[in-house]
Structure formats: C-alpha cells, structure tokens
Amino acid sequence: MNNNLLPPSASGFMRSTEQASTRLDAIPVDLRKLWNPDECPVALLPYLAWALSVDRWDKNWPEETKRKTIKASWEIHQKKGTIRALRNVVEPFGYLIRVVEWWQENGTPGTFRLEIGASEDGIDADTYYEMERLIADARPVSRHLVGLNIILEATGEMFTGGASYTGDIITSYAE
C-alpha cells in the first residue's frame, strides 16, 4: 500500500518535500525538554535564550552560567528596573552584589553604586564589561550608576607571631 497522498501530477519538489517530512515523525523530540533550561541540550541553549528574550548572551560562558541566565530571564524582564533585577543579572555569574543608593550615603540624588563580591579567581575584563552592559539594561531608568566596585575576598590561614626581649643591665661597684 502506498502512503503517498500526493496526486500523480505532483512536481519533483513536492515529492522531495513529502519524503523529507515523512522522516520528521521518527525524530524523538520531547518539546517539554526543549523549553526547559535544565533539560535542554547544550547545543540548543542559544536558541532557547533567543526565544525567551535573554538580553545578553556569550557563547563562551560555562554551561551552568548559560542555564542560570536563561532561568533568570523571565524574572529579569518582570522586575526590570528594580534592585532584584540587578541581582538576577549579576548572580548567575556567581558573584554577590550590594546596592548602595544615593540616599543611603548622602550622595547625588538619582544615583547608585554597586559593590560586587568576587570569588578568589577575580573578574576578567570581558566579564566586567559584560556585567556593565547587563547592569545598564536592568537598572532603574531614573537612576545612574556612579560606581562599580569589585571586592575580592581571599580566604586562607595567616600566622602571626611576636617576640619581646626586655632586660636591665645592672652594674655593681663594690666598696
């Protein structure tokens, strides 16, 4: 039995298209996995990011950062212009953030400053500029960034010691 639904007068292009599309049902694709950042194949993450309107994307990011960025996209768009959006932009990189508003330090009205706590590895120049762009997209439009401080905290053991030497010189003159 022939499964061909095309009329006998179908063109070669129509027959080729029909043959190509009959193979599509044999591809085991679970669409639910394609729309889930945790289960989406790594090769398809850029397309998922595009579909979910991720603002910034770098193909050189580690896989974990890509997945966290995609997950945070919805909340970033929902909360854009808030401090929470700034946190959602920076924290997928693995850094902690502290926002200091102008009214907290008697600064210029309408300004804010960020303090980013980096790990022992620090932040390279490309990541720094990428974070600047992301922060500019997520910040409140009525606020202007006047400072971006990177705080590097190193942990380890430190030994201290001290010594003291005291004494008196006594000279005795016998009479």
Question: What do you see in this structure?
Answer:
It comes from Salmonella enterica (Salmonella choleraesuis). This is Phage tail protein I. The protein has helices spanning 12-22, 31-34, 45-51, 63-79, 83-90, 125-138; strands at residues 96-101, 111-118, 144-152. The protein has one domain. The chain contains six helices and three strands; from the N terminus they run H-H-H-H-H-E-E-H-E. Helix 3 (45-51) packs parallel to helix 4, helix 4 packs antiparallel against helix 5 (83-90) and helix 5 (83-90) runs antiparallel to helix 6. Strand 2, helix 6 (125-138) and strand 3 form a beta-alpha-beta unit. It has 175 residues and is α+β, with helices and mostly antiparallel strands. The protein is elongated, with a radius of gyration of 31 Å. Helices cover 35% and strands 13% of the residues. A three-stranded mixed beta sheet has the order 1-2-3, with helices on one face.
Uncertain regions spanning at least 5 consecutive residues? none
Helix content: 25-40%
Q: Tell me the number of helical segments per DSSP (H or I, 4 or more residues long).
A: 6
Q: What is the strand tally?
A: 3
Overall 3D form: elongated
Radius of gyration, in angstroms, nearest whole number: 31 Å
Alpha carbon gap, first and last residue = 138 Å
Report mean pLDDT, rounded to a whole number: 86
Alpha-beta classification: alpha+beta
H/E element order: HHHHHEEHE
How does the major sheet shape up? 3 strands, mixed
Strand order in space, largest sheet: 1-2-3
For the record, the count of structural domains works out to 1
Beta-strand fraction estimate:
5-15%
